Amino acid sequence: MSIELKKFSIIERDASSQARTALLETGHGKVSTPVFCPVGTAGAVKGIGPDRLKEAGCSMILANTYHLLLRPGIEAIEKIGGIQKLMGWDGAILTDSGGYQVFSLSKLVKITNSGIEFSSHVDGQKISLTAADAIDTQRRLGADIAMCLDYCPPYPADDKQLKDAVEKTIRWAKESKAAHKSETQMLFGIVQGGTNRELRKYCAAEIIKNDFDGYAIGGLGLGEGHSNLVDTLRFTTPLLPEGKLRYLMGVGTPADIIAAVKSGVDIFDCVLPTRNGRNAYAFTEKGPMRLRNNAYITDIAPIETDCDCYCCKNFSRASLRHFFNVGEMLGPILLSIHNIRFYQRLMTQIRNSIEEKRFCAWADEKIAKYRTLYNSSGESKKD
């Protein structure tokens, strides 16, 4: 069945910053932005069913092309009806190109002008991934938004490494655009360059020549710290077309997200809510909560009394502590649900504050608060 490619419409702009709200219409539903996408690494947001994701307020999720390419394989996914059928999710899906995971997970990687050659971290199988391959793979998956293959160097990287990454990203963006034949799938270009302003400017100028449906900012959230991240965003985001979607890849903490929205970013994804949830770590307005602690052994309160998530409505801190300490899988599931809902509530607050024309004061207060409570990895500053 053919699914029509829909549109992106800006609804409200903040007068004192670059923040905006908008509506993205996809073939699998409408997405209000700014939006946070939970990460479905292997075709699922770990331990959480689609019904709970929707209940938590999710409208779009990210699926990992690298992992799906290795297992179960693209042909298998095609035969069962595409990625939505695999995941049991009828909402919007954004897929990455797989490049970042190649660099971070594969022991043997050879980077060429045409793409990447690597060994699978699962069985050592030799695999080649070109820009055209990455686009064809995402088309066959059936994602609503696909990403160009890009080269994200590790942090820190010197200017020579960053320049090489930028040149390859630009080359692969052109090849990705040429290979993209789907009329039902949006394609995003990616801007690299680390914290080097000249390289960011050069990369952005070359990438936007391809007239993508949206633009991602990659290579941040790798250890450069909040201030460097914000400075880079403030410089880079205005270089991108104002009428197109802007996506900050792999970020991040509550403070990073609010600051990025202030700079004009629309889409976010990060593993923090679920990864921390699996490790007994809850995000709350009063700071992080470690649910394995003995302090909660008889605590009958929910994680947060004003949270409307399934976890907080049905389980106490004492219950959660018990589940984690006996290795019961329900603990990580429930806490991940809470953390995802925490992030979705945050995004709702962001959208409401923009539309009610009070965003900047609200954002500055929240950024200061969250930076006091959490470090750049989302961990407690008290730990």
Could you walk me through the main structural features you see in this protein, from its secondary elements to its overall organization?
This protein is α/β, with parallel strands linked by helices. The chain has one domain (8-276): TIM Barrel, CATH 3.20.20.105. It contains 15 helices and 17 strands. It has helices spanning 50-55, 65-70, 74-79, 83-87, 99-105, 131-141, 159-179, 197-207, 226-236, 254-262, 272-277, 310-314, 317-325, 330-355, 359-373; strands spanning 8-13, 20-26, 29-33, 35-37, 39-40, 60-63, 92-95, 109-111, 115-119, 126-130, 145-147, 186-191, 214-217, 245-248, 267-269, 281-282, 289-290. The protein has a 6-stranded parallel sheet with strand order 4-15-14-13-12-11. Strands 1-2-3 form a 3-stranded antiparallel sheet. Helix 1 links the parallel strand 5 and strand 6 (60-63). Helix 7 runs parallel beside helix 8 (197-207) and helix 9 packs parallel to helix 10 (254-262). The longest helix has 26 residues, at 330-355. It is globular and about 60 Å long.
CATH homologous superfamily?
Queuine tRNA-ribosyltransferase-like
Number of domains: 1
Nearest-integer average pLDDT: 94
Low-confidence stretches: none
* Total E-strand runs: 17
Radius of gyration: 20 Å
The fraction of residues assigned to DSSP E strands is: 15-25%
Apparent shape = globular
Q: In the CATH hierarchy, what is the architecture at level 2?
A: Alpha-Beta Barrel
Sheet with most strands: strand arrangement: 4-15-14-13-12-11
Q: What is the percent of helical residues? A: 40-55%
Q: What is the fold named in CATH at topology level?
A: TIM Barrel
Q: Termini distance?
A: 52 Å
What class, by secondary structure content?
alpha/beta
